[in-house]
Amino acid sequence: MELINEFDVSVPVDTAWNVLTDVERIAPCLPGAQLQEIEGDEYRGVVKVKVGPIQAQYKGKATFVERDDTAHRAVLEATGRDTRGQGNASATITAQLEPSAAGTHVTVTTDLTVTGKVAQFGRGVMADVSAKLLGQFVDNLEQTVLADAATASAPVVEPTAPSPAAAEPSTSGPSETEPSSPSPATPAAEPATGVRRIDQPEPEAIDLLEHAGSPVMKRVVPALGVAVAALIVWRIVRRRRR
Question: Is the pTM value of this prediction over 0.70?
Answer without folding.
Answer: no
